[in-house]
Amino acid sequence: MARLGAGGMGEVFLAFSPGGQAAAVKVIRDGFGQDAEFRHRFAREVAAAQRVQGVYVAPLLDADVSPGTEHPWLATAYVAGPSLREVVVTHGALPASQVLLLAWGLANALTDIHRVEVVHRDLKPGNIMFDETGPKVIDFGIVKSLAETVTHRSQSTRIGTPLYMSPEQAEGRPVGASSDMFALGSILYYLVTAREAFGADSEMAVARRIVAHEPDMSAVPPPLRNLIARCLRKEPNQRPTPDEVREWCEMALRGAPGPGAWMRLTAARASIRQRTDALHAARATGIPSAVGSIVEPEPRSEPRPLPRPEPIPAYVPPAPADEGLKTPAVGLAPRRSTAALGMEVWLAIGALIAAIPVPLWRESRLGPGGQPHKWTTSFEIRHLWEQNHFDDLKEHLPTIGVIGTAAALGLVAVYAFWSPESEVLRGCRVAAALVFWMWAFMVIFFGGYLVAMTLDLLPEDYVGPPNSYRFVLLPGGWLLLLSNILAANSIRRAFQKRRAEDGAVWR
Prior knowledge:
The chain is α+β, with helices and mostly antiparallel strands. It is built from 15 helices and 13 strands.
């Protein structure tokens, strides 16, 4: 019904099935269709693409690659939305939170693709469409089965787009699933900066940069910097798997996104609405001109021009000592780490609640005549407003301990589970961590003193003649200490999580 676009291998048209389902039909160019080697490889790769099924993959609906077909073609489900390249060209770089969301969807798509031993080999922003249900990876006409042991090469079957090739593609080495992960890193870099990671004046210069140089990561926000850097590793075995990227994104997003999360990508809303309305009109009227507004004109320029490349020193792999600072902890099961952090905080809260109704410690005092006096101390909220002399400060200690522990747990929650975008609010989060550690040092000092006295490690403590005091921790006191220990370990876990997410704990 309407021409949607053209690429290096053919043209793409919009069509409808007898049942009214919209499809994007790719018709192979004459030069390729008459090439027997290409036709044979294309038929094999269509069979591979038919095995790929997933929410974030545009499914292959039908194909005709039989020898008698003059123009081989394949049909995939039509996605009524723009490509990610169109979104960036029109609206510029996307916010880090939206790129994290897209990274999660693309990781799911690559999981589905690689599960059936297929490699896309030409993943790029132009091959990722976006509608109200999320990103859709398209163009499986050039994927390659992992099970194949022979790489078919000819001048007419070049595979891959230079700007998004992996180093092994650029050098002509065998290509596996990790090549798609390198392309994913280049895509995420483009989405968050509106610049190509390895942009240069010629294909040869691009290939040289991909193989020998590192991209400038200074423009990449911290939540994505380590993830992108890991995907862009030169060695394939050092890149994360799609599952690791998906788990990393879920940790950064505080869980798997829900169905309505994709509406956060506001830059694509107008285009999606326009194309959806035009598609409905075309289906209802059957008039080809009705779909003219579905496809936006191909952009002629980038949102900001690429600077002329400066000479870059030869690539030197990072020193082993820096690995921990630059590598996101995507292999450490972040979802389990987040769950463990939450469970530990809840255990600390439980220990605090359990400590409130029971005695905290027992105090004994030896009077002037040698007569011992013993009594137990518990938490009483009324001590907060009672007027006591400084000499009776010990009566406030239970209240200080319980209220202080509750406040400390609040500080842990602020640092561990709050991820503001503003630098000012991030400073408040760091301040919460610092205040917590001030409290922790006080607990270490006084708690250690009480534990030593309870275990009879201190023979006696003379407050001042003629009185001698001794303290013994009771169940409530031990629970209070346990709550603080769990809180301290929780904030330690949070520090590790922040390092994985932001590349630094003091952010």
